[in-house]
Amino acid sequence: MAPETLSRSSQSSTGIVYRSDVHEACVSNAYKLLKNRFNDILRKNDSLEKSQKLLQRRTDHASRDNRRLRRELNRQQNDCKLLTKEIKSISAEKSQLYAQLEEEKFQKQLGDVFLQQCLDEIGERQQEIREERSKRQVNDLMVDRCRDKIEKQKLELEEKENHLRTCKEAVVVAYSEISMVKAQNRYLEQRLIVGEDNISELNWQLERKNGETARLNIIVAKLEKERSEAMDGCYYLQGQIGKLKTTTVN
Description:
By secondary structure, the chain is mainly α. It has a single domain (about 20-250), classed as Helix Hairpins (Orthogonal Bundle), CATH 1.10.287. The protein is about 100% helix and about 0% strand. Helix 1 (about 1-125) packs antiparallel against helix 3 (about 135-250). Keywords: Coiled coil.
């Protein structure tokens, strides 16, 4: 009777040890699965952080391009203002030259009238001049002087007209440059609008990535809690298994 009791006790102890080993294996497998899932989430979190940093760099780059375009636009606007001032100055000089030209024309007309009067007087006094050669020489000298003066006035008038043509050409060139600057300003403004749209899109993507990162951080915290609870359960089961082994040995 005693050997049968001892045999049953031995079989019962062996069954308990076997079940504890199976339970320990299950707990170990569950711990490995949780660890693999935790590592996978950490890798995804690292990938999201890298993507977030890349988006941040792209946002910074777009912001720098935007600031550079603003500086270029300000410079172009300043150049346009300077050209406008130069055009006003050239226009004022042109008006002054027109006034001088009108004055020169008036003086030329007066000279022509004076010359015509001199010629008329010479024609009327030809007979007297023939008789009085000295008077004729004086009159010829007066005519020569008038002609020299008129020729000089004509040369000055031609110089004024040439200068006026040069001013007109300068005005045409300045207007052409202003048109080019305005076209560049429109192009830079369009690029500035596109840059601001890109910055808005990148900021939206960055906010979305931040939301995903926050969600993953919550999942990681939850898994950390589950892992901690699983570890506590493992430690508890290991303690129970140790107690069972100690009881079995005894």
